[in-house]
Amino acid sequence: MDIFGIKGLLICALIFIPFEHLFAERPQKILRNGLGVDLIYMLFNGLVIKAVVVLIAANTLEAAAMLVPQSVTHAIGGQPIWLQVAEIIVITDIGVYWAHRAFHEIPALWKFHAVHHGIEELDWLGAFHSHPVDSIITKAISLTPIFFLGFSEASIAVFSVIYFWHTLLVHSNLRIPFGPLKWLIASPQFHRWHHANQREAYDKNFAGQLPFLDVVFGTYNATGNKVPEKYGVDDPVPSSYFGQIGYPLLRRRKRSNRVVPESKG
Ligand SMILES: [Zn+2]
Ligand SMILES: [Zn+2]
Hints:
It is found in: Membrane. With 265 residues, the protein is an all-alpha fold.
């Protein structure tokens, strides 16, 4: 049984590696720095996160059965699938937006999220590079309402596939012009500016899939066609997998440059 999702990894690699080679935003080697650590994230975190999502679903469905009237869950789960998927994307992305913003603004949470921002060479595989505490809290906040409200299994399955590929796409090193769609659908350009280690990019572009949420909540970074000078963080995030897992839990003297109040704006 392919519990680590090796088959999925190979399919993603076969699609993204050639495209990133042909349409690269920045010159970057396939065997880039941090590739081995990102592979470990992909294999182990994927497993932990799947288990946690199953737990969230089971508990929420049980609570919903007691608290939400069946007329409500039936009405929601009975809508056309495309409409349910659109609603799920909006609801989950509002959750992603605020969870993500909290991870930036609350110093104790930032240490977990700094691990994701530690990526210095960004490509599709960087999508998996998150501390498990970061991924689990974000999933719990964004997915609980979906299970609670009674969206159908089929629409949740379609959403999961869209979300998975979209997350890989926004982390990819691809140059794809989105035109006016850039306000509606998060592009690699939108998310790479979230990863830029440049002051004007700090605490901007929090949405996962819907950039207009950043416009609504006042955190959109309009960057035009510029490419970030560098990615990463100034925090002393270790380079090894276990170093990164332990990093938020260890006391350190150096404070993050990103959580001082003047970084806002
Ligand atoms: Zn972030
Ligand atoms: Zn990211």
